[in-house]
């Protein structure tokens, strides 16, 4: 077996177990001859009428096996009655419930005997209860005068307790009891004084015997109450106890039972009953008064409760009392119970037998069931409380019985005297295996029986020397305890038991395991309320103990359910404990326990739940002043998180009543503050506490405090002007808030005069916060003041601010000096500034309007679409970008201020030169063969000049990192829209690039990829846009092997004869079918195909990785070697360095040239120029302007700054 030592408190329990083992070691094994011992018996058996039979138990052990006999009422009882069934393997028997069995009632004893002695059971009481019945009787009606007392007797029949009595009417409704009406313990119904409502003819007494499942009813009684006109009051008179018992009576109660004393008095008015204990107090905590004080109940009565108890009944006319003398008695109980013993020949012994009880029990001795006087042993000395014997011999073996009895009962004890001389018998198995953990105690058992007494020694298998030292302890029952075990203690041990007859030995094996360790984390967490808490229990135990490892969680010592709570808020998953939506109730000590076969360990942490503080309480106002007040409060519960600060709020704004505003904040250690106040406010305060979790609810508001009015303390701020008409000043300011007005009747005094003029101030007083003033001059400076006044006076002296009267439109236009063409899409405009006096306001900047009039390519007129670009500040030049190349433009310049724009200058006409074209609109490979390809393309959307031809380039790519040499073809026919390439490699992937060219150079390329066909293959490359491919493929039936068929693909909405393209498909007939079928079913062919597919997949993966690393096609390299001179000049002169990300791919990148490169950007998509801090294209190399992209006049001026990030190309 595996021995599990416990630590701490468990060690005490372990020692108790060993003391029990010690007593068990004194028991004689059944293999040794011994006297009988009663091991089981019935004490009381009730013959319930609904049971089939009644079992009387008696069982005993002994060697030789005992023989059983019975007595009934101290006379031999014959078990031969046919209704008695005797058990075969014990002395028990059962009485069958057949016919009348009342003659079986009585007190039984069981005797178990063998050649060595006789054991005797305690008395067994067999009760045959009768069926309780009320006697059939005629009950005369009762008649009584109103106000008189009456008693309705019940006299219930006798039966098996407990007995419950109820008074009800014929409808089974309970008779109501109160201070006037009372049912005694015997069941009689008492009336202190009757009333008319007590008249009824169906007073019924019911007696219930629950153990018998029986309820019986007494015949109904009739009570008539005659009304009386003169009801006389009278003083109390006791009905319970009855008058015959006198003023005092005695009550006998057994110790430990419940004492019930009752008093009931008649009288008018109804008497009240009180209880007392003369010379002492009623026992507190154990006494209760029931039934409106008429019953005194004392539970678990003891000897100290003996004495007199008094009940006193009183009303307005007097009182009466009765004393109960309580006598506490007790059935016999053992003080010293005789103990069985094993003795060797020649030894001596004493049997002690003492009992307590009230009255004092008498002691009787028996030997083998008979009085000791009838069968004395030589050498026995018998006293009332002890029997002693000397020089015991084997024939002295017997069973002694001690019986103690008084009037309340009898108790009996058997004491076995076995005189035995045997060799030690070790009852623990040999080669038993034990285990414990490092640091714990190990217990190796060696239970034995020996007579005479034996000596136990333990040895290790390696050394034939007894174990000695403070770490080893041998108990009397043979168990060896090894304290603070270590790995060195593992091994085999021998237990030797030796007495005068001889010696015996067994071997025990001990294994030492590593102790289990635990760690719970996080350690002592602090968790805000409503958050989620996750606890983890990390365990480490010996590998041999891991299968038995069980983890469990507890909170404050109480275990959780296996998986947590039913609602899922607490979830336990082995070593993890998760609590969702944590509450204050979840706070406490959490412990994780690990239990194995050999040890247990536990670790605890403190979980603290944080919450917002409770609101502050008891707000008080003191030191009330006109401009200040002291507010104090008491802090609420901080819920485990210190209060960091308090927020003091006030309410009293006359414009927004009920709105609370923050007034000040106070450090969390403070609970009072002096608050600054404003005049003319009816204040009310509240306080909010804050901690690391959040804010508390606001406190209850304080009392009101009202401050008197005063003159304003400040004047309006943010005085400004707003004018929509020339010479107009609409003066505006921020009005004083309600809390700043300081009193009733708030007004504003506005003063103004021309700046620097020696004239008087003009004044006007208004109640709102705006004033319209007309002046004599356009955009002239004025000194303006605004002062607050109320009924109690004026605010402080106001400060002057400078405001300007309303502006008018500029009256003159700038003169354009010239337009310098930078390149085909960009020009620089210069103009002269307008005179300051004609601006009529603050000059905001200049605006350029331009529009295209015609294209120089075809000479066609262009509808007028005006574009606007604004330049803020004192500017005399600006750049106009995003123009159409090879076109004619008109351009005007105008000045503008806050009012708006002035007149335009005379239009200036200029033309833009040719530029490079945009990329072709499309490029398609319309036909491929093994060594040829046919390409088709469309014209660029913008030619930007006279088209001179195309530059066609192509190179091998084949989806590998390396790319082939770039080949150039110059196409000098502008009208050409397709090209046939020859001398290409078969089964090779190519990339094609096409640029459109003018005299200024070639534009951005458009690209396309395609692969040539293999040997013996023909066909078109793919179907272009416009063809709707269905998901189903319909096979074409081939009529003649080797024949050529033309397949024409048609769109649904084109004409019948308009094919997109056509090509020749070479077909192969059925003559090859058999060959292919044969090959496709061959295993070598299938394996070869799988290998090729795998290699292809690997190559594609490597290729994809290589391509993603990026590269650079040589197309761009050529472009870098031959840049557009016009573009390059713009880069150098105007823009500085810029990077065109579309034209500088990484080296080897296939996708870089595949992107759709845009030519000159249109004006509609241009990012805003101008109005920026770093102006775009100023004379020093930056460009300034706000390009609005508008098509008409009057575009809104752009605010803020932006930087141009677009590419500009010629």
From TrEMBL:
Gene3D superfamilies: Immunoglobulins. GO terms for biological process: adult locomotory behavior; axon guidance; brain development; cognition; exploration behavior; negative regulation of neuron apoptotic process; neuron migration. Residues 1-25 form the signal peptide. It is a single-pass type I membrane protein. Its main location: membrane. It comes from the Eukaryota. The keyword Repeat applies. Residues 1116-1134 have a biased composition (Basic and acidic residues). Residues 694-717, 1116-1148, 1191-1210 are annotated as: Disordered. Residues 1196-1210 have a biased composition (Polar residues). InterPro entries: FN3_dom, FN3_sf, Ig-like_dom, Ig-like_dom_sf, Ig-like_fold, Ig_I-set, Ig_sub, Ig_sub2. GO terms for molecular function: cell-cell adhesion mediator activity; protease binding. It is found in: Cell membrane; Secreted, Extracellular space, Extracellular matrix. Residues 615-710, 715-808, 810-915, 919-1016 form the Fibronectin type-III domain. Coiled coil: none annotated. GO terms for cellular component: apical part of cell; axon; dendrite; plasma membrane. Residues 36-125, 129-224, 236-329, 332-418, 424-511, 516-608 form the Ig-like domain. The chain crosses the membrane at residues 1084-1105. Keywords: Cell adhesion, Cell membrane, Developmental protein, Differentiation, Disulfide bond, Extracellular matrix, Glycoprotein, Immunoglobulin domain, Membrane, Neurogenesis, Phosphoprotein, Repeat, Secreted, Signal, Transmembrane, Transmembrane helix. Belongs to the immunoglobulin superfamily. L1/neurofascin/NgCAM family. May interact with L1CAM. May interact with ITGB1/ITGA1 heterodimer and ITGB1/ITGA2 heterodimer as well as with ANK3. This is Neural cell adhesion molecule L1-like protein.
């Amino acid at each position: 077996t595996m021995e599990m030592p416990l630590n701490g408190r468990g060690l005490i329990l372990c020692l108790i177990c060993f003391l029990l083992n010690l007593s068990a070691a004194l028991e004689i094994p059944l293999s040794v001859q011994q006297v009988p011992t009663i091991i089981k018996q019935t004490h009381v058996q009730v013959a319930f009428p609904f049971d089939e039979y009644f079992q009387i138990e008696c069982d005993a052990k002994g060697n030789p096996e005992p023989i059983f006999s019975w007595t009934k009422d101290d006379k031999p009882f014959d078990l031969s009655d046919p209704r008695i069934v005797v058990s075969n393997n014990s002395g028990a028997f059962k009485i069958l419930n057949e016919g009348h069995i009342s003659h079986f009632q009585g007190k039984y004893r069981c005797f178990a005997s063998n050649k060595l002695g006789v054991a005797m059971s305690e008395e067994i009481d067999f009760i045959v209860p009768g069926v309780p019945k009320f006697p059939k009787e005629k009950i005369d009606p009762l008649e009584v005068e109103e106000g008189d007392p009456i008693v309705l007797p019940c006299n219930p029949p006798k039966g098996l307790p407990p007995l419950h009595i109820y008074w009800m009417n014929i409808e089974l409704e309970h008779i109501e009891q109160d201070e006037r009406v009372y049912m005694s313990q015997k069941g009689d119904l008492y009336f202190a004084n009757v009333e008319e409502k007590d008249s009824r003819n169906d007073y019924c007494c019911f007696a219930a015997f629950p153990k018998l499942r029986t309820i019986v009813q007494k015949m109904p009684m009739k009570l008539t109450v005659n009304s009386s006109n003169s009801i006389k009051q009278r003083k109390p008179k006791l009905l319970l106890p009855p008058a015959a018992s006198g003023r005092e009576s005695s009550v006998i109660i057994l110790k430990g039972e419940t004492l019930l004393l009752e008093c009931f008095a008649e009288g008018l008015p109804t008497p009240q009953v009180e209880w007392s204990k003369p010379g002492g107090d009623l026992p507190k905590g154990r006494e209760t008064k029931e039934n409106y004080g008429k019953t005194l109940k004392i539970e678990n009565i003891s000897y100290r409760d003996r004495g007199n108890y008094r009940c006193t009944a009183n009303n307005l006319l007097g009182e009466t009392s009765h004393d109960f003398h309580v006598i506490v008695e007790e059935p016999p109980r053992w003080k010293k119970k005789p103990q069985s013993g094993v003795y060797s020949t020649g030894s001596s012994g004493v049997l002690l037998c003492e009992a307590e009880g009230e009255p004092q029990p008498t002691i009787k001795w028996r030997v083998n069931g008979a009085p000791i006087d009838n069968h004395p042993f030589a050498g026995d000395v018998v006293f009332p409380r002890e029997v002693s014997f000397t020089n015991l011999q084997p024939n002295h073996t017997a069973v002694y019985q001690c019986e103690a009895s008084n009037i309340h009962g009898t108790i009996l004890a058997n004491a076995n005297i076995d005189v035995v001389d045997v060799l030690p018998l070790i009852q623990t198995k040999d080669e038993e295996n034990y285990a414990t953990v490092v640091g714990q105690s190990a217990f190796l058992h060696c239970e034995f029986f020996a007579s005479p007494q034996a000596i136990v020694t333990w040895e290790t298998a390696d050394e034939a020397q007894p174990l000695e030292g403070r770490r080893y302890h041998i108990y009397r029952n043979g168990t060896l305890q090894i304290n603070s075990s270590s790995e060195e203690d593992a091994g085999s041990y021998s237990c030797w038991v030796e007495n005068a007859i001889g010696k015996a030995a067994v071997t025990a094996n001990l294994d030492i395991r590593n102790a289990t360790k635990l760690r719970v984390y996080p350690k002592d967490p602090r968790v805000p309320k409503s958050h989620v808490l996750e606890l983890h229990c990390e365990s480490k135990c010996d590998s041999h103990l891991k299968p038995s490892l069980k983890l469990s969680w507890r909170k404050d010592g109480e275990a959780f359910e296996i998986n947590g709570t039913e609602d899922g808020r607490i979830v336990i998953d082995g070593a993890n404990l998760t609590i969702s939506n944590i509450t204050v109730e979840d706070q406490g000590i959490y412990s994780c326990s690990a239990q194995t076969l050999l040890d247990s360990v536990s670790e605890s942490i403190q979980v603290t739940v944080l919450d917002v503080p409770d609101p502050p309480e008891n707000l008080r106002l003191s030191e009330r002043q006109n401009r200040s007040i002291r507010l104090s409060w008491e802090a609420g519960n901080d819920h485990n998180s210190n209060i960091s600060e308090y927020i003091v709020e006030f309410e009293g704004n006359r414009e927004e009543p009920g709105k609370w505003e923050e007034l000040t904040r106070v450090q969390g250690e403070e609970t009072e503050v002096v608050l600054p106040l404003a005049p003319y406010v009816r204040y009310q305060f509240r306080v909010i506490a804050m901690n690391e979790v959040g804010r508390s609810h606001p406190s209850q508001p304080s009392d009101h405090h009202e401050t008197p009015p005063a003159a304003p303390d400040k004047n309006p701020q943010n005085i400004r002007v707003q004018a929509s008409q020339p010479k107009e000043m609409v003066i505006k300011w921020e009005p004083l808030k309600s809390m700043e007005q300081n009193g009733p009747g708030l007004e504003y005094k506005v003063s103004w005069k021309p700046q620097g003029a020696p004239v008087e101030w003009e004044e006007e007083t208004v109640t709102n916060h705006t004033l319209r003033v007309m002046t004599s001059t356009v955009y002239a400076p004025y000194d303006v003041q605004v002062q607050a006044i109320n009924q109690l006076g004026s605010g402080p002296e106001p400060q002057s601010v400078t405001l300007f009267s309303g502006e008018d439109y500029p009256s003159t236009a700038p003169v354009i000096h010239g337009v310098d063409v930078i390149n085909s899409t960009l020009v620089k405009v210069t103009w002269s500034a307008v005179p300051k006096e004609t601006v009529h306001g603050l000059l905001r900047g200049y605006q350029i309007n331009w529009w295209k009039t015609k294209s120089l390519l075809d000479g066609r007129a262009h509808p007028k679409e005006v574009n606007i670009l604004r330049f803020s500040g004192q500017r005399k030049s600006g750049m106009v970008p995003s123009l159409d190349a090879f076109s004619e433009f008109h351009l005007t310049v105008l000045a503008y201020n806050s009012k708006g724009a002035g007149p335009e200058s005379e239009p200036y006409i200029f033309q833009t030169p040719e530029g490079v074209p945009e990329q072709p609109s499309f490029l398609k490979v319309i036909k491929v063969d093994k060594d040829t390809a046919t390409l088709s393309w469309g014209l660029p959307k913008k030619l930007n000049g006279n088209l001179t031809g195309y530059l066609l380039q192509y190179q091998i790519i084949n989806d590998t990192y390396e790319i082939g040499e770039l080949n150039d073809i110059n196409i000098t026919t502008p009208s050409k829209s397709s090209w046939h390439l020859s001398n290409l490699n078969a089964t090779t992937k190519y990339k094609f690039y096409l640029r459109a060219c003018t005299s200024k150079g070639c534009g951005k390329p458009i690209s396309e990829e395609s692969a040539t066909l293999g040997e013996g293959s023909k066909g078109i490359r793919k179907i272009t846009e416009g063809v709707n491919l269905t998901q189903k493929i319909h096979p074409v039936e081939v009529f003649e092997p080797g024949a050529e068929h033309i397949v024409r693909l048609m769109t649904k909405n084109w004409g019948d004869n308009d094919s997109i393209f056509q090509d020749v498909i070479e077909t192969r007939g059925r003559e090859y079918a058999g060959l292919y079928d044969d090959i496709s079913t061959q295993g070598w062919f299938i394996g070869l195909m799988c290998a090729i597919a795998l290699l292809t997949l690997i190559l594609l993966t490597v290729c994809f990785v290589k391509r993603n690393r990026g590269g650079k096609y040589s197309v761009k390299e050529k472009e870098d070697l031959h840049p557009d001179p016009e573009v390059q000049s713009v880069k150098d002169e105007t823009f500085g360095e810029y990077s065109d990300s579309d034209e500088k791919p990484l080296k080897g990148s296939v996708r870089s040239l595949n992107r759709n490169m845009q030519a000159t950007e249109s004006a509609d998509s241009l990012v805003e120029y101008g109005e920026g801090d770093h102006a775009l294209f100023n004379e020093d190399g930056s460009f300034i302007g706000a390009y609005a992209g508008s098509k008409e006049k009057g575009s809104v001026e752009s605010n803020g700054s932006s930087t141009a990030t677009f590419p500009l190309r010629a």
